[in-house]
Structures are given as C-alpha cells and as structure tokens.
C-alpha cells in the first residue's frame, strides 16, 4: 500500500565521520527491463522538435516497492545533517521518494559511565512513496505520523544511551561488521548486523509491523516499550478498502456524546492487549464495567471515573482500532443491513459466524434485516431470556464486523408546501433565531400587548400595574394551560406562537393537538431550539431535553401534519461503517 514505508534507514555521524549503519529491507532487486533497445548510430543528430515535444522522463527510485538507485554513501551524506538541523523535522524529496526523519543528537557515555564530550547524531529515516493520489491518503498527515515515530525512536535511544550506553554499543557492532571486509553495499554485512544487533532487529520488526498491521509494539534493549499506531493502516482490517485519517477520527470524537456507547472489536478476555497500550488504571476499571448496553455516562458512573476521563479512554481505544462508537443496544434500536456489507458466498465471515454461533447461518441472519427492523420486532415477549440474550450477542457480532448499521429518526419541520418560511424570510423572529433573542422578542411583544389591553380596559394604569400584569402573563404562558373561555384559549395560542409567521401559525392551529396546552408548549419549545431541522435524531433530543421516548413519539404523531420524519444513520459515527 502507499502508506507503507519503502525502507527504514539508520545513519550516524560523529567525530569519526558519517556512515549508513543499517537499512531494511536490504535485498535490492535488479530491474528486469532492458537498459537499451539497440546500439545507436554515432553519426545521427538529435531532432530539436522531438526534444521540445518529448520532455525527459523523471528517474524513478522505486522498483517493485523497493528503494533503488541510491547507494549507501549517497544516503549517508544526505541524512548526516548538521547540528543546526537536529531535534527538528527533516523532510527531503528525491524524484518519487520522500524521506522523513527527526535527527537526534546524543551524548555518548564511555565504559566508566561518564558523559563524553563528543556527541553522536543518530537519524532514523523513513522512505515513502512521494507520487501518490491525494484522494487516497492525506500525505501531510502521513508524513506527520512517520515523523512522530522517528522522533519517539530518537527519544528512546537518547535515554538508553544516557542510561547504559546502548547506542554506542550497537553502533560499534554495526561498524565492525562493515569494516570486517564487507563493503557498504554488501547484503552480507547487513545480514551479519541483523544477527548480532538487537537495534537492527527492532528496525526490522518495525518495518514488518508497519507494512502488515500498522501497529508497532517494540521493547528497545528489552527495557523501554515503544508503541505506535498508523491509523491509515490499522483500521484496514475491520474497514476494508477505506482509508481512515486521524482527522476523521478527531471529527468523530469531537461529536462524541454521553448517550453514545463503546463497542470493543476484540473479545474482552483479551484485555491485556488493551491495557498494554495505556498504563492508566482507569482503562482497566472501565473495561471491567464495560457493556455495549451501557452509554458512556452510565459506564463512567459504574467505573467511578469522570465522564471526561471516559471520553479520553474511548478516544484512545478508537484511535488504536480496538473499539468503535455505537448507540447503546436496546429494544428500540432499528438496524438494517449495510449496503457494502462484506458478504459473499466465499466470505470467511460465513465460517467465522458458524463457529461463534453453532447451528446459525450468517446469510439467513443478515437477511432478516433487509428491511429496517428493531430488536423489539425480533423478540417475542413470551420467549425465554436466553433467546433474547442470544439475539443481543448476534447483534453485537454483526456490528463488530460492520454488517449492520443503525438507523435514527430525524425530524423536519414542514408547515407549508414550500417548507418553513423562515428559510426564505430570514428575520429574527424565526425559529432559527438564538434562544436569547427569541425570548427577548417574545417578552417585549407580550409586554406591549399586555400594556395595550390594560390601557383599553382601565383607561389609565400605573407602570407597576402593567409590569405586574406582564409578569403574570409570562408565568401563565410558561407554567399553566389555556383559559376557560374560547377567547382566552385563542389569545394564549397566538401569544405562544407569537414569533412564528402568520402562515405557519394558521397551519399549526388546524391541528387538533393545539387545544392541549402541554403539547403545544412542548412543540413550540422544541421547534424554537432547532430540533426540527433534520440535524438531531430522536435519541439526541431525548437526552438533551430530558424527554421520554413515548412522550416524544406521541408529539410527533399529534403534529404529523407539519412534521416529517425520516430514518438514516448518525453522521457522527458513520465513519466507522462500510456504507459511508
């Protein structure tokens, strides 16, 4: 893949000069293409027009995904940078290869464990493909990831050199292998280094991990752990054919809410694989209380952790492709088969599903969700609890393998045939106005109406009386129902929907539910806050407004003449589904 490195190169520079100590892979392949088609006539002259119309093709340093065309001496002179360039990002592009590193300056230690006056520059360089489609991967972020890995490696080597002189020992072994009759370009010298030096083996393992899984888990000098995740690679195993960038993960985590839940992509009994990534004891406590039926707020309470800490641990697991974000599994959840579900007759998931659920067929199970279905529709109220538990386990397995996606109900306010009028008028009295501006406009208008009524009834009223009546009217508007007479009822309806356009009010007043004060006040409140613009699903409205599902669904049914509902997946977590 384009995100995998072409080669990892180790270069050192000290008082004895600069040298390329190790590179992996060091097996170079010769180009099978012939260098020339035939002998040219020495008496022919080049045609000027052909030279102008046929520009010279750039030379390539990549042959069968290997770095070629650059000798060890050239690479050594390129990456043995000056002291001024140490401890900062180094990036160099040569033809179609981009080199990324973080040169580190070390203080050497002698055998008496005293700091030597001389220093050594150590540079671990990653060679990447430079000519790639920008639609496939963001190369700025990819270069940043590899630079971060080179920087971490330099910090570890600097610490180990200060602690026990590890880098001096390893570089001496590598230099001796090169000086024992082997040339710099000889593969046998690199092979001897790979057999004797643990640092060379760490570089080899790092390259293999980056090219296969994208997860690097090393222990330098059998002492310092070094872990690294390449998101563009590590998420490939559970989201096939999709490049997941770190910015995509950050966008998802920024939309994380307490009503979301965590879904582990690995069995919980493999907990050591999770806790090895983070030394925080909170991670172990959270995994002990983990359940995909709990939301993050409940999980934080059960784990005795703050919600912010649970968010951070969730982001950690999601970044390392150990978990994904879902909505807590409950009976009202509605699922449908993913459009790009990796299912075919020869899919390895068929056998894996049969091993996990003996006697069950994956095709038949997934086929039951060809149409959107909720768990309550699949469960018989009279069935045994073990059958319900088995259904929940099946749903969890299908979500882990991205075979299902959850549909949420979104609401759109449509009072007229042409949609909401505020989208065209754009005045401050519309439902899109801010809560503070809407409330002030309603109070001011309501006070003026109250003052006019008071003057018409009594002829003369003091300012205190007008204010008292206005406050009383506001209290009545917020806390009690309509008046007893038909005139009072109509007045309160108009005052409650005062900031709505006239045409919208007339459409709303035709609904029988407007005669119920609680329903009308709830409808007006949710509409003013912008919940009926298709950006908030039902579960989010329930959480933000502390409403029961039955209460909200009854409201949607009563105002179905002006409210349109549709079902789609949550865009906040759509990145982790194969359909997005």
From TrEMBL:
<dbReference type="GO" id="GO:1904262">
    <property type="term" value="P:negative regulation of TORC1 signaling"/>
</dbReference>
<dbReference type="GO" id="GO:0034198">
    <property type="term" value="P:cellular response to amino acid starvation"/>
</dbReference>
<dbReference type="GO" id="GO:0005764">
    <property type="term" value="C:lysosome"/>
</dbReference>
<feature type="domain" description="GATOR1 complex protein NPRL3 C-terminal HTH">
    <location>
        <begin position="503"/>
        <end position="564"/>
    </location>
</feature>
<dbReference type="InterPro" id="IPR005365">
    <property type="entry name" value="Npr3"/>
</dbReference>
<keyword id="KW-0458">Lysosome</keyword>
<comment type="similarity">
    <text>Belongs to the NPR3 family.</text>
</comment>
<dbReference type="Pfam" id="PF03666">
    <property type="entry name" value="NPR3"/>
</dbReference>
<keyword id="KW-0732">Signal</keyword>
<comment type="function">
    <text>As a component of the GATOR1 complex functions as an inhibitor of the amino acid-sensing branch of the TORC1 pathway.</text>
</comment>
<dbReference type="InterPro" id="IPR056603">
    <property type="entry name" value="HTH_NPRL3"/>
</dbReference>
<protein>
    <recommendedName>
        <fullName>GATOR complex protein NPRL3</fullName>
    </recommendedName>
</protein>
<dbReference type="GO" id="GO:0038202">
    <property type="term" value="P:TORC1 signaling"/>
</dbReference>
<dbReference type="Pfam" id="PF24064">
    <property type="entry name" value="HTH_NPRL3"/>
</dbReference>
<dbReference type="GO" id="GO:1990130">
    <property type="term" value="C:GATOR1 complex"/>
</dbReference>
<dbReference type="GO" id="GO:0010508">
    <property type="term" value="P:positive regulation of autophagy"/>
</dbReference>
